[in-house]
Design a protein that fits this description.
Elements: E1 5-6, E2 14-15, E3 20-21, E4 26-33, E5 38-39, E6 44-54, E7 59-60, E8 65-67, E9 81-83, E10 88-89, E11 94-96, E12 99-100, E13 105-106, E14 111-112, E15 117-118, E16 123-124, E17 129-130, E18 135-136, E19 140-144, E20 147-152, H1 155-179
Parallel strand pairs: 1-4, 2-4, 3-5, 4-6, 5-7, 6-8, 6-9, 7-10, 8-11, 9-12, 10-13, 11-14, 12-15, 13-16, 14-17, 15-18, 16-19
Antiparallel strand pairs: 19-20
Length: 180
């Protein structure tokens, strides 16, 4: 796994317990992965000019890009990337300097930009664009480019948010077991 974990200015990613990182992915710098996280093929994550935190049981799927924004005079904290627990980040998603709450699904090909905040229990539709600074309220489906609140989540959709995370933890465990 060490070839996928690279330092930046002497800071290496920190990895929790029972984590799976596909060997085709690259994680650089100030990145912390919680327990039971899975990082799938061809994910690029750069915690170079700010930090990335990914909570327990979250998964980042194939081809996704994770990055951050510099700290500067106009924005002293910059924009780190914070991903909560039980989050499913779909295939080919771009998350840049944003905050994603717990039990969130970010659909395939979505783009979430600097300073955006996705609260807990939200679904972001495939191909959606979340503009800089936009806040997505808990309990809703959001779709479009730019994203708009479509409707409240149904109970089965809320339940699916946890089920998706659970499914990826189980799949990740299969990959780890096969590697041993």
């Amino acid at each position: 796994m060490s070839s996928v974990l690279r330092s930046y200015k002497g800071i290496y990613p920190e990895v929790g317990e029972r984590v799976y990182i596909d060997p085709t992915s690259v994680l650089v710098g100030d990145i912390t992965l919680g327990n039971d996280v899975s990082i799938w093929p061809l994910v690029a994550a750069r915690g170079d000019v700010n930090h990335i935190r990914i909570g327990d049981r979250s998964n980042v799927q194939d081809g996704s890009v994770l990055h951050v924004t510099h700290k500067n005079k106009e924005n002293p904290e910059g924009y780190p990337l914070i991903i909560g627990e039980d989050v499913t980040v779909g295939h080919k998603v771009m998350l840049h300097g944003c905050t994603v709450g717990n039990k969130v699904l970010v659909g395939m090909g979505a783009i979430v930009l600097d300073g955006a905040i996705i609260e807990d229990e939200v679904m972001v539709g495939a191909g959606s664009l979340v503009p800089p600074g936009k806040r997505l309220e808990s309990g809703y489906l959001y779709v479009g480019s730019p994203v708009k609140q479509a409707r409240p989540l149904k109970e089965e959709e809320r339940a699916f948010l946890q089920k998706s995370s659970d499914n990826y933890v189980a799949t990740k465990n299969d990959y780890i077991e096969e590697a041993n």
